[in-house]
Specification:
Elements: H1 7-13, H2 39-46, H3 61-74, E1 78-82, H4 85-94, E2 102-106, H5 111-123, E3 127-131, H6 137-141, E4 148-154, H7 166-175, E5 180-183, H8 188-191, E6 201-205, E7 219-223, H9 237-240, H10 251-255, H11 259-272, H12 278-288, H13 291-311, E8 315-319, H14 329-335, E9 343-348, H15 351-361, E10 366-367, E11 377-379, H16 391-396, E12 404-407, H17 413-425
Parallel strand pairs: 2-3, 2-4, 4-5, 5-6, 10-11
Antiparallel strand pairs: 1-7, 6-7, 8-9, 9-12, 11-12
Bound molecules: pyridoxal-5'-phosphate (PLP).
Pyridoxal-5'-phosphate binds at residues 84-86, 110, 112-113, 154, 158, 183, 185, 205, 207-208, 217, 219.
Length: 426
């Protein structure tokens, strides 16, 4: 079951395919181990000669069914679940980069990913160069070096809400002989499928819209199967030359289009762990069953709220890429014609003090450190995630002192707007 069905059908039915007499609903395989009849059968699994389950740190049937659903939604050939979005981004890169390597990344980036790339990866000997994603192809290409292994960006950046020109990034990556990796967390495959625009690997924090109910932290990596690793075998020895930890097996030769995800599973999960718990994968799957319905409601609510804010005289500025007049409106229409995401940012006249008073006056809308779940919530980066910074440092970091991040949920939009209105008047 895959590409012949439309996304709505894949949300509900892809992944778990029960055979005669098996549970209709995806079961939680709450088991660390799996049984075999002969020692030889087990040995073949350890040599990657047979596919099968033997230990949940590497693979679990519940996780694999959910990963298969996400792969189908993105139009990829294979996927793996990870314990968090952070783990997914780390594995996606570490699978093809090692000490001494380098990659290029848009500077419009989630704060956690920025720290991972600029601080922790650096300690591992992997260097990153950040580029302005709106710069020309020539300017961005100038950041590439002989040891550059990939290009990375977010479809819609969190929290700055900039839209990436995916086709441009794909051209830059491919003309430099490396894959394009895209964090597609905010639009989800319901609103954007980066593989259709030339991306090679897609990453998700499933914690956000995919789970959608703020119940389970998780991540996912999906491979399009399109990047020709063997054409650049000298750049990607981990995939294209024998792996001594598997008796000299070469992933691209043994697994073809499945090479990248097989290596991430057999090598990175084996050695580093960070598998998603089957319980969380079960919750994620229930979220995915309604992803198509929820995204529609998030987007229509967010557009209505953005229009309301834009028309309100107490509001200094509104940033929402699906709002006509936004700097990224044309790119959003190109890549996400049916809607982008439910996250908006805005500021109030009067700055930081007024913004804080506004947030404290909200009743239905809650202050939480989260985005992209069913309940409308707000965060004031200057007081929360970035509170150690002065106003000047905030502006340098791309966060205005009055910046309010509003994640519009799927409640009735009239109730959301009414709560915002009473707080603006307070
Ligand atoms: C939240 C988020 C992450 C990190 O995901 P976790 O599940 O919190 O580890 C990565 N990228 C983006 C765009 C995010 O919004």
């Amino acid at each position: 079951m895959s590409k012949q069905f439309k996304p709505e059908t894949l949300c509900v039915q892809a992944g778990w395919q029960p055979k005669k007499g098996e549970p209709r609903v995806l079961p939680i395989y709450q088991s660390t181990t799996f049984k075999y009849d002969t020692s030889e059968q087990m040995a073949r699994l350890f040599d990657l000669e047979d596919a099968g389950y033997f230990y949940t740190r590497l693979q679990n049937p519940t996780n694999d069914a959910v990963a298969a659903k996400i792969a189908a939604l993105e139009g990829g050939v294979a996927a793996m679940l990870t314990s968090s979005g952070q783990a997914a981004n780390f594995y996606a890169i570490f699978n093809i980069c090692q000490a001494g390597d380098h990659f290029v990344c848009s500077s419009a980036l989630y704060g956690g990913t920025f720290n991972l790339f600029s601080v922790t990866m650096k300690k591992l000997g992997i260097e990153v160069t950040f580029v302005n994603q709106d710069a020309s192809e020539e300017e961005i290409s100038a950041a590439f070096r002989p040891n550059t292994k990939l290009l990375f960006g977010e479809t819609i950046s969190n929290p700055s809400l900039e839209v990436l020109d995916i086709e441009k990034f794909a051209r830059i990556a491919h003309s430099n002989g490396v894959p394009l990796l895209i964090d597609n967390t905010f639009p989800t495959p319901i609103n954007c499928r980066p593989f259709e625009w030339g991306a090679d690997i897609v990453i998700h924090s499933t914690t956000k819209y995919m789970d959608g109910h703020a119940t389970a932290v998780g991540g996912c990596i999906v491979d399009s199967g399109n990047f020709d690793w063997d054409a650049y075998a000298d750049k990607f020895p981990g995939l294209c030359t024998p792996d001594e930890s598997y008796h000299g097996l070469t992933y691209t030769k043994a697994f073809g289009k499945g090479a990248y995800i097989t290596k991430a599973t057999a090598q990175l999960m084996r050695d580093l762990g960070s598998i998603q718990s089957p319980q969380n994968a079960f919750l994620l799957n229930i979220g995915l069953e309604t992803l198509h319905l929820r995204m529609k409601q998030h987007c229509s609510n967010a557009l209505a709220v953005a229009k309301y804010l834009e028309a309100n005289e107490k509001v200094a500025w509104v940033n929402y890429c699906s709002l006509p007049g936004n700097k990224y409106y044309d790119l959003a229409q190109k890549y996400m014609p049916n809607g982008s995401c439910g996250v908006i940012s805005f500021g109030l006249k009067g700055g930081r003090e007024v913004s804080i008073k506004f947030m404290d006056s909200l009743e239905l809308v809650a202050i939480v450190t989260h985005v992209a779940d069913a309940r409308t919530c707000v965060l004031h980066p200057a007081s929360h995630t970035h509170r150690q910074l002065t106003d000047e440092q905030l502006i340098e970091a791309g966060v205005r002192p009055d910046h309010i991040r509003l994640s519009v949920g799927i409640e009735n939009v009239d109730d959301i707007i009414a709560d915002i209105e009473q707080a603006l008047n307070a």
